[in-house]
Amino acid sequence: MPPSTSPSARSCSLLARRPLRCSAWGISSTQASYCSMDRSLQWSWEQLPRQPFKVDDVASYTSHAVKLTFLVSTKADAAAATFSFDTKALSWKLLGNWALPFAGRGHFVPHLKAFVGLTKDPDTLGQICSCDVPSFDAGDGQCPAPVARVCDEKLFSDKPAERHVSATLVDMRCEGEFCLVECVSVADQALIEEGDVRLPGRCFYRVATFFLTHGMNGDLMTRKSRQVQYYEVPEATSKLFLAEDPVAFWM
């Protein structure tokens, strides 16, 4: 009988580089694990313990590079839960019956000491939310939901002719600088002005860059003026593809 492929039966694997002949190079295994060019390291797969949730219930996720841990929030009907995975101990832990405030991928911002991401709640659509880092390394007990904040500024396009389709938040790895990649649909008879260029209607990727910071009262806010550019989506792109959040990353 073939193995089950149901959501609850799926498991995860971790791709990592493992030290093989560290002693020959005169360095410790810890040093070797961070030396990506060392010939003593090779790529290998590590089978992870089965996750304690259904993968189809995942609502948001993020990682903490310093603590070598990633967090996953699930929502099933009215129930919510957040789990952490320790990549050193290779173990899952239930943090509590609450969910991270953002949808999809979140990003850890060191100078804010918080995770940030986009919210898909209808009341706050187009706004960025953040939450403090939960105490996921405090023994075996569960921890309370972290304090959450929402940026008052709406970052999605506010032009009447543009309809929001999907969006992705990209961390530019520069002290809170982010890039928002938003897909917008424009009526055929409408035009978008980009400097001195007038672009014909259809679908465009609207790319905006900005910085995130905390205000005097700890509120989440953007600083410096936003820069916005539009990029036309190829005609052959399917509507199904555009409906999914854009896949984007910073290099």
TrEMBL record:
**What name has this protein been given in UniProt?**
Uncharacterized protein
Please give the superkingdom of this protein's source.
Eukaryota
One Pfam assignment: DUF1668
